[in-house]
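Collaborator request, handled under Task 6.
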Amino acid sequence: MSGPADALVAEVMTTGTLTGLPQGHYIGGRFVPGLSGNTMESFDPGRGRAFARFAAGDAADVDAAVAAARTALCGPWRQMGPAERGRILARAASLLRERAARFAVVESLDSGKRLTEAEGDLRGVARAFEYYAGAADKLHGDSLPLGRNYVGFTTEEPIGVAAQIIPWNYPLSTVARGIAPALAAGCTVVAKPAEQTPFTALMLAELLHEAGLPDGVLNVVTGTGAQAGAPLVAHPGIDHITFTGSVATGTAVMRAAAQHVTRLVLELGGKSPLVVLADCDMDAAVNGVIEAIYENAGQICSAGSRLVLDRAIAVAFMSRLTTRVKGLRIGHGLTNPDLGPVNSLRQLETIDGHVRRAVAAGNRVYAGAAIAKPEAGGSGWFYEPTIIEARGADDPLVQEEIFGPVLAVQIVDGADEALAAANATSYALVAGIYSKNITDALRFARDVDAGQVFINEWFAGGIEVPFGGNRKSGFGREKGMAGLRSYCKLKSVVARI
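Structure tokens returned to the collaborator:
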């Protein structure tokens, strides 16, 4: 092992924790203790034990954070030009690259993901701030052709105070893809990271303040969804909510937002199909399937959790795929195995419950299907990389989001059946296809119901590509210029001359 993260990894593996982690909420440009004085534990998923404590916030802390954000909205931030906002975001991108090792180690320790994945996340986060730094002064309205006696134009104005409810699977990436465009647009922000993964959001807030962000423009309140998240989304001082999480919680967020007619962007997960047709590049497709479902132990809303496979190549393809999957190494995320732990004991039990029910129902198991105990030992939360064949389109393996390293296989005959299978759930987040026939691939992209489609590479694209879903996967878009406009309100102006 070599590189800038070495000493940090060694400290964690030796002591079980990391010194210098943030303390308190980040409100008004500084760390402050929770008003109640209550704290919570954060757990290392690779060892299954607590490594640090953090503030357990409640409605009083949320009130303080929203007040700070509303004050900042009318302060120097409001007078600052778009180019200067961009310069702050650009400085933040530079600082993130300088401190990427520490951010990545904390992200891996807190979430459980492999260090290499966390390092990739950091590169993406820095790029997100760089992208929106360049976009801040490119946001403009339109001239309206009303005839020679009128001048008409539109302007894009910041929506106001934006709340960010952040999930535990991609703590830093998700907070960045919301905060960066919100700040570029001129909004102020109150973020509530998941109680399982609070630390990198707090670290990011401090870094942005160092980059020049005025006090109160970005605030972070930690705590549970019930005690801190619910008061935030129901707060009358919030003008916009970006929520990433489950359908059930998203529905509750919508109800709370309706009380104040608060704008929403919801990303609620998926059960995304990865179609592999008979004419695919089989090696590339096998690699793509493994990345699509086993990255971050399958805990990705856009995971390719359904393999929709052409019967003509099913035997050969499944043989290759199963051999590869059975050889994946499991271990603590900081040791860079092939597959890390799942985030919590609760999530481990949820995954195991789905698989046990499928096995009891008679589904064919190709690989895995059990809680894992890595050879390196430890008492962390691990699940074997699993492949199970679905019994039909109505199989719970097809219809329900498992959010773990479990691949459901659906065997179909040709492109038309593959499309029908792809569209046969209530989710519509992403979809992908492996085929050498560009006509078949583009027809699939045209006809599948999904917010994003990958062709011959899963997770293709980056911050430039708008992301979001349809149906039960939510609505609204993050990333790209569409994500920037999510934090704007359009004003039309007409003058008679």
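The cover message to the collaborator said: "The first strand starts at residue 25 and ends at 27. The chain has two domains: 6-268+474-493, 273-462. Please let us know whether this matches your experimental observations."
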